[in-house]
Amino acid sequence: xxxxxxxxxxxxxxxxxxxxxxxxxxxxxxxxxxxxxxxxxxxxxxxxxxxxxxxxxxxxxxxxxxxxxxxxxxxxxxxxxxxxxxxxxxxxxxxxxxxxxxxxxxxxxxxxxxxxxxxxxxxxxxxxxxxxxxxxxxxxxxxxxxxxxxxxxxxxxxxxxxxxxxxxxxxxxxxxxxxxxxxxxxxxxxxxxxxxxxxxxxxxxxxxxxxxxxxxxxxxxxxxxxxxxxxxxxxxxxxxxxxxxxxxxxxxxxxxxxxxxxxxxxxxxxxxxxxxxxxxxxxxxxxxxxxxxxxxxxxxxxxxxxxxxxxxxxxxxxxxxxxxxxxxxxxxxxxxxxxx
Length: 340
Fold this sequence. Notes:
This protein is mainly α. Helix content is 71%, strand content 3%. It contains twelve helices and three strands. It has a three-stranded antiparallel sheet with strand order 1-2-3, covered by helices on one side. The chain is elongated, with a radius of gyration of 32 Å.
């Protein structure tokens, strides 16, 4: 019979062998689309959170210093006969009480052992139930997505299977400790493309309005009629690839990671995640406005090809860096409790 660690390693290897074709398709799909490429970083970010929770072991209180008597007895002291007799009587009475209460103490010890055993069995049963639940959900998502041809539903089986594996290893306690990492891992599943196609026009209009307000400082006669921007005689058409949906998904995942990394409270974390949408409009508006300024200065060639892609990526990375620095600056630090 294999030891427990070898059995778990074998189960993990078989799991990766089973889902490797699905993960290969996920990698090809996300890397081929600029809107979904954010998902490639999600497993790495989830692993960072998981490793941090693993290293944060339980804290142990230091041993209390032994109290010293204020008036220690002298080195050379000989008790008198009366004190020696009283001490002998106390020792004898203690021995008699210990013998008399021995059956009761044995019964209490056996009862405590039974309660501890039943508690361990109930915790083990709860861990198995949670593991079975998530395993069934993962199998249902995998089979249902395969039969229906919905790739997003099939991919949901991977994080659900990970939940089942963690529940089997550590039960409810492990799920609670790894909740931020497991929740972030769900973001590796990209949203359905039909949903993004419906959101793109809304993002283009909102980003264009933001770019219009920014460009008014340089040209008061600038106009915006979705998806066309007229700036200093140039007519710029904002394509769907520049709608900002990919920026929104990336900032959404980054906000969730930062909320877990800095251990923000529920309301602070929710506020940070919701702020990813207006931040997306600002970043994408700056991206469109900067493209218009570059084209007006250097010509139409500057708005095409590699130069245009580099400009857009630089603006998005600056927005992500600004978000991370802001959270690192203003997030409350976790208090370190020292047990004295």
